[in-house]
Amino acid sequence: VTAGLLTVACAQLAPRIGEPEHNQALTEDAIRRAAAAGARLLVLPELCTSGYVFADAAEARALAQPLDGPAVSTWRRLTDEHEMVLVAGLCERLPNGAVGNSAVVIDRGELATVYRKIHLWDRETLVFAAGTQPAPVVATSVGPVGVAVCYDAFFPELMRSLALDGAQLITVPMNTPSTGTTIKPLAVEVVTAVAAAATNRVYVVQCDRTGDERGVRWVGASAIIDPEGRLLATADHDGAAGQLLVAEVEPGMAADKRVGDRNDVLSDRRPGLYRM
Amino acid sequence: VTAGLLTVACAQLAPRIGEPEHNQALTEDAIRRAAAAGARLLVLPELCTSGYVFADAAEARALAQPLDGPAVSTWRRLTDEHEMVLVAGLCERLPNGAVGNSAVVIDRGELATVYRKIHLWDRETLVFAAGTQPAPVVATSVGPVGVAVCYDAFFPELMRSLALDGAQLITVPMNTPSTGTTIKPLAVEVVTAVAAAATNRVYVVQCDRTGDERGVRWVGASAIIDPEGRLLATADHDGAAGQLLVAEVEPGMAADKRVGDRNDVLSDRRPGLYRM
After folding, report:
1. Cα–Cα distance measured from residue A50 to residue A97, given in angstroms and rounded to the nearest whole number
2. Which residues of B touch A155 (CB under 8 A)?
3. CA A237 remoteness from chain centre
């Protein structure tokens, strides 16, 4: 094993709405499978504890958990046991009673950060309080990890911000509803992830969900992408339930932003000449 | 023909360095072929008059032309005759004696704007003066046209800026040297163009070159992409010399930034939460 190499994984689960114990068991099984595959970083889907297609805000509130609830507590215990970093989506009961579409970063038993999605998609606006803090970069035992949740990753300025803040691995818990428009040969959510990886020279580890839910189908856009934009792992065509994507990465490679002999994708920026 | 539909084209030429008359003839032939195909917008490659792999700055200076030189003069005459908008790369002799890696936008006989590339790639830094003005959006007879030149398009903030400035069609004259790294199933330069189109809901019309030149091979990354990220036209696998890509577009569609029932890719931005 070359110094600096490590194994990362995504588990493309199929949670069931309204069955939190079933969903919790899926996440625990995924952590054990990832550990068995040697993974030191695992990404799980957005809202993997609750499901996604809420009937209304009340249903989301009823399925939400605080940060000392069963999901985070169990994840802390298992990541400690397996010496792993976990990034997972959580339907979070906020201290003020609102509900957050959140992602937690847990590093070997410790809750390192919680991030609340800042770009809400469609009916999420009826259910969740949008986050008010920037997407974070967290110093972890696998290096600096950035977090974006699903539609967040559709904003190139957010992915760029994570790279400027030093993220070497950008993790993206997601739930990508299929809109009926099929972009070939790669789903547009995979394309945008490849572009983010290549233009920022970072790894992207994104974990979608699968499984029909109240008439919604999912794209299955899970992917692990290297800083040159190579797809190291993608989901099977039909987004098999529970599929574990695994790849070996070298996060330190993402600290080097050079391309070719004379260029650097971050220092070549011309900030005075953009409209932002 | 639906109101608002128009035909756009890219001509993936194979210029020869040091043979400006040959190259000029290629561009004139491309304009005539595009007109015959009904195109009202044609994009030609970066530096299509001069070639790309200059031995040194002196060779670039010798092959540069001012804006009243033969290339622009001829293009003005032909676009007037064919009632066409042309976006083409030009090795430009600047008034101060320096050389610009420029793109001109010519609308039915009139030089609407000239843009000098602001992100220079590799040895271009030894040859060209980097532009000092933002990439422009130009009101033309086919709608608001944005311009980026090759490596410029690798900066998501530049593409976003063009969208925020109202571009409906982003044109990208390019010369993409093959680096030996093959990204499959799509070249990374096509992937980044698809991502720019989809995340900004704009058309992207990018025109690469082909033809070996002093040991350099080219990716042949020409593509016409719609605001949902669909590839309307791409180059043949080996980037056939002179290939004309043609597609029918509806620029007005790119004025609508809505996605789904409740979202808008520009107004959903959270500018206070990015690091730029």
Report:
1. 17
2. 199, 268-270, 274
3. 20
ipTM, two decimals, is: 0.96
Any B CB within 8 A of A91 CB: no
Which parts of B110-269 are beta strand (E)?
110-116, 137-140, 143-147, 169-173, 203-207, 223-225, 231-234, 243-249, 258-259, 263-264
B79-123 pLDDT, tens digit per residue, is 999 999 999 999 999 999 999 999 999 999 999 999 999 999 999
> How many other C-beta atoms lie within 10 A of the C-beta of residue B49?
26
Entry field: residues in chain A: 276
Q: How far is CA B245 from CA A3, A65, A193, B44, B249, in A?
A: 47, 53, 27, 11, 13
Asked if A164 lies within 8 A of B123 by C-beta distance, the reply is no
DSSP state of B119: S
Which residues, numbered 26 to 85 in chain B, qualify as contacts with chain A under a Cβ-Cβ cut-off of 8 Å?
A: none
Using CA atoms, how far apart are residues B215 and B123, in angstroms rounded to an integer? 15
Query: What number of CA atoms fall less than 13 Å from residue B73's CA on the CB side?
Result: 5
Which listed residue (A46, A92, A124, A213) is catalytic? A46
Q: What is the Cα–Cα distance from A259 to A263, expressed in whole angstroms?
A: 5
**Cα-to-chain-centroid distance, residue B207:** 5
Query: Pick from B155, B194, B262: which is nearest to A269 by CB?
Result: B155
What is the rounded distance in angstroms from the CA atom of residue A107 to the CA atom of residue A139? 9
A213 is catalytic: no
Interface of B with A in 110-129 (CB under 8 A): 118-119, 121-123, 125
Enter the pTM of the model: 0.97
Q: How far apart are CA A82 and CA B199, in angstroms?
A: 38
- CA of B225: which chain A residue's CA is closest? A183
Closest CA to A220 of A169, A171, A186: A186
Q: Does A141 touch chain B (CB under 8 A)?
A: no
Q: What is the pLDDT of residues A20-61, one digit of tens each?
A: 999 999 999 999 999 999 999 999 999 999 999 999 999 999
Which of A122, A188, A273 lies at the smallest CB-CB distance from B198?
Answer: A188
- Cα–Cα distance, B100 to B131 (Å, whole number): 7
With an 8 Å Cβ cutoff, is B190 touching chain A? no
Total length of chain B: 276
The candidate with the shortest Cα–Cα distance to A89, out of A131, A40, A33, A37, is A131
Q: What tokens were used for B29?
A: 């032939």
Among B67, B229, B34, CA closest to B142: B34
